[in-house]
Amino acid sequence: MKKLLSLTLALLLTLSIAAAIAEEPSVEALTATYVTSPLNIPSIVDQEYRIFEETLGVPVNYAEITSGADQTQALASGDVQLLYAVGGTSIILSAANGADIKVLNMYSRAPKAFCMYSTDESLDSPESLRGKTIAGPAGTNLHELLVAYLAEGGLTLDDVNYVSMGIPESKAALDGGSADVALLGGAAAYNAQQQGYHLVADGEGRIKAIIAVCVTQKFIDEHADVVDRIYAAEQAIMEKIDADPEAAYALTAQYLDLSVDAVKEMAQAYDFTLEISADDIAGFQKTADFMAETGMIDAPFDVSQLFVE
Predict the structure, then answer these.
(1) What pLDDT is stored for residue 14 in this prediction?
(2) Is 73 exposed, middle or buried (0-12, 13-18, 19+ CB in 10 A)?
(3) Measuring CA to CA, which residue among 21, 155, 169, 139 is closest to residue 70?
(4) Each residue of 290-304: pLDDT tens digit?
(5) Which residue has the higher pLDDT, 222 or 309?
(6) For the purposes of burial, counting CB atoms within 10 Å of the CB of 307, is it exposed (0-12), middle (13-18) or buried (19 or more)?
(7) How far apart are CA 156 and CA 127, in angstroms?
(8) Residue 219 in contact with residue 78, Cβ under 8 Å?
């Protein structure tokens, strides 16, 4: 009986979305973020086949904004309407500061894919990082990883020289010797591994590495039909990937200048399931609690307010 009810509800949801998509959309265009790193296969597949544009029925513009803080700022300003792949840390920081931001669904989870690399094998403990220059993107899962790792040794960001920069720039700084440690993910982390660089730490057991899809409550209230189309487009993207994963890996390899075997290996660390689970919500709360404890936000934050009711 429960299975029949579940199937009935799923069918009703599908019909509801289909009905909304059959009508003219309530927007004339949409701007979404486009982020390929660390290994955002769905974004790359959409970029190649323009699935969002086809499903929404309006022009979709893409903003290449890699910093989580810059992404949430663009959402708040109205320059971007859809954050397609933004880190949980950035979402919580934005909401805790009073911004209008809501999680529509999940994008990915991949704690092991977020790493700290060095060319110095003696950097093997939080204490060994004291006074060292560490490069990585602020307001991201990598930022949270660094803070979490330092906390294991009773250290904070004040004990290191943290320089905020993008993942490619961080890798270049490590290669060139201007950074002692780089916060890396995706292709950059894989290349560091292949170069024989020293893995200081990864996110396993330290962070949930949650990536989500966000809009504002204002957008939901004014364009509920477009929200339905957004989710339908995401489903279509995942169906495209699931139907031919080898093609998706090959496409990703082309976009990120990696071998197909490298993409296959890296993809094993990723879960791209769209639905928000109880574990995801718990992960958001764990991150929020951690951010409050370490001073990344001023006060405890209840993540239940992040989700669409």
Answers:
(1) 45
(2) middle
(3) 139
(4) 889 878 899 999 999
(5) 222
(6) middle
(7) 10
(8) no
